[in-house]
Amino acid sequence: MIKALFLIFEPMAAWEGIVRARRSLGFIVGFYLLPTLVIVAAAEGFGLVKWGKPQFNFGQMKRFTTGEATIYEAAQTLLTLAVIVVGAHLIKVLGETFRGRHTYPQAFAVAAYGLSPVFLLRLLDAFPSVNPWLTWIIGIMLTVKILYHGVPLVMLPDPPHAFGLYFMSSLLLLLLTGLERFITAWYLSGHFIPLETFVSHVAAKLPF
Fold it and tell me: Smallest Cα–Cα separation from 184: which of 171, 162, 199?
């Protein structure tokens, strides 16, 4: 969380520190990404159990069981990891189209650290009165802002191609996280009834 705030308010210094550190992919996942996602999942899961989420049918409020919240947060965490893995791969491919030679760890660092504001704003999703689309919009706008500094510093593209790579990387992450938000927001609002029934059935068998 501290890294996310640093990236938002001091993006240049934060990215320069990331570049100097030269963290491995395993370090980024184990010591930054997973702890961040676990904290966010715990906060949102607490809100789902304590307050619930408004449903699309006549504004009803649904409070989730501990099992349902656990399954949902685990699934959302895996979906987020998939977005980052796929996004990093596509950013690497994009870099090659701009005649650059980039490594996957470089692209992964851009995706993982670049999406920090999106993760940070998800903490507000714990509150039922907060629109999940609002937190995503603010988060992705901040992501686009910090990627402006991050892509050139981490990916090291040729100067003539730097803006193009930044723009396409930002657009790619916007689309991927937007799709993820659509899926999760619709589920929480009660649009995926068959899936909700299945999750409730599985959650009832959990020992908590």
Answer: 199
- pLDDT for 148 equals 97
pTM of the model: 0.93
At residue 58 the predicted structure's pLDDT band, cuts being 50, 70 and 90, is: low
Q: Is 97's pLDDT higher than 90?
A: no
Q: Which of 153, 144, 150, 145 is nearest to 177 (CA)?
A: 144
Residue 38 CB-half CA count within 13 A: 7
User: Do residues 187 and 195 lie in contact, with contact meaning Cβ atoms separated by under 8 Å?
Assistant: yes
pLDDT score of 98: 73
- Enter the tokens of residue 193: 């009834």
